[in-house]
TrEMBL record:
<dbReference type="GO" id="GO:0006313">
    <property type="term" value="P:DNA transposition"/>
</dbReference>
<dbReference type="GO" id="GO:0003677">
    <property type="term" value="F:DNA binding"/>
</dbReference>
<dbReference type="GO" id="GO:0005634">
    <property type="term" value="C:nucleus"/>
</dbReference>
<dbReference type="InterPro" id="IPR009057">
    <property type="entry name" value="Homeodomain-like_sf"/>
</dbReference>
<dbReference type="InterPro" id="IPR002492">
    <property type="entry name" value="Transposase_Tc1-like"/>
</dbReference>
<feature type="domain" description="Transposase Tc1-like">
    <location>
        <begin position="75"/>
        <end position="140"/>
    </location>
</feature>
<dbReference type="GO" id="GO:0015074">
    <property type="term" value="P:DNA integration"/>
</dbReference>
<dbReference type="InterPro" id="IPR036397">
    <property type="entry name" value="RNaseH_sf"/>
</dbReference>
<protein>
    <submittedName>
        <fullName>Transposable element Tc1 transposase</fullName>
    </submittedName>
</protein>
<dbReference type="Pfam" id="PF01498">
    <property type="entry name" value="HTH_Tnp_Tc3_2"/>
</dbReference>
Length: 171
């Protein structure tokens, strides 16, 4: 059995294949012969035929998971709100949507849109050498007054953009 055929046995039947199986079985073909004709396993043919005889339909059943609580429109609204104001909590977003959903649903919708929560650093992680250099710099200037300190710009190595927006999302 070739690799292609082995993989096809585990993939779902297409609509045309279901129609062929039902047509051939209705014509009296054996399961073995039908399976060889459509290049599928006998169990796939049997399952398709049993569903046809039991339910009268060849359509594939939908998943058995829980039904969706939000519509596509509400999902887009959740994502849009997160882009407009990323500081709003999940509970607040849930109240804005107006549907009874759990906070994990909000997180899942945001993750599907590649929006992940992030926490800003409380302080820049400095190495021991950086800490020592900063301490030496401050100790060398013990007699500075307020006007001297106003001339110093502390940036904590943040990025400043004076021109156009660089489209980065800030926390």
């Amino acid at each position: 059995m070739t690799g292609k055929r082995a993989r096809r046995h585990f993939s779902q039947l297409r609509e045309i294949e279901r129609g062929l199986i039902i047509g051939m079985k209705t014509a009296g073909w054996s399961t073995h012969r039908v399976a060889g004709q459509v290049d599928r396993s006998e169990s796939a043919v049997i399952n398709c035929w049993e569903q046809w005889t039991r339910e009268g339909t060849r359509a594939w059943k939908t998943g058995s998971g829980a039904t969706r609580k939000t519509t596509k429109r509400e999902d887009r609204r959740i994502v849009r709100q997160a882009l407009v104001d990323p500081t709003v909590t999940r509970s607040k977003r849930r109240a804005d949507v107006g549907v009874a959903i759990v906070p994990q649903t909000i997180s899942r919708h945001l993750a599907e849109a590649n929006l992940k929560s992030k926490r800003p650093f409380r302080a820049l992680p400095l190495t021991a050498e950086h800490q020592q250099l900063r301490l030496q710099w401050c100790q060398a200037r013990p007699i500075w007054n307020v006007t001297d300190w106003q001339k110093v710009v502390f940036s904590d190595e943040s990025r400043f953009v004076l021109g156009t927006d660089d489209n980065r999302v800030r926390v």
